[in-house]
Amino acid sequence: MRVERLSRDKIRFFLSLDDLMERGIEKEDMWRDIPKVHELFNDMMDQAYQELGFEIAGPVAVEVFALPAQGMVVVVTRGRTPSPSDLDDLDGDDMYELEVTLEESDQVIFQFADFEHLVQTAHTLQRIMGDGGKVFAYQGQYYLVLDTDMETETLKQAIAILTEFAEPSTITEHVLAEYGKTIWESQAVGEIVRYFS
């Protein structure tokens, strides 16, 4: 489980399938109100506090993005900070209120901080999955968007390669197309290999 700060009141976790399996949690369980999901959330908040000093009390928005064949990204946003009198009314089990939304995508989107990493990844990916994909530039990062309509084993191999060079992203293709710059609209992996061999 990895955690990173996105802003003062927002953090993001990446949970691998192994993280979920260790706790006996299926992807579908994430939106259910069951003890093991509460326990996972408490572990996540403990890690966020220890690594980032991120404390929560009061309302919290939780967005869960299921990533095909690799786990999920959980974005936690703090609401208003409760006053001391609000805290007096809470017992230990009610330190925060959760508002959970779940989204599942038929794409995997990875962000690269360095164009050279994208080029290296494309050369390896082409041998496994051919020439597909789209590439966008947005806020100083490069984004590779792949549709997941490929064999499960091929998808798993592609994701394993991608995680070596890039981070999974929760930004949607719509946001990238609207606010970013489209570099390759199709066959991106093949085009990168052709231009940067």
TrEMBL record:
Gene Ontology molecular function, alphabetical: protein-macromolecule adaptor activity
UniProt superkingdom: Bacteria
Record InterPro entries: MecA_C_sf, Neg-reg_MecA
Family from the record: Belongs to the MecA family.
Function: Enables the recognition and targeting of unfolded and aggregated proteins to the ClpC protease or to other proteins involved in proteolysis.
Subunit structure comment from the entry: Homodimer.
Domain notes: The N-terminal domain probably binds unfolded/aggregated proteins; the C-terminal domain interacts with ClpC.
Protein name: Adapter protein MecA
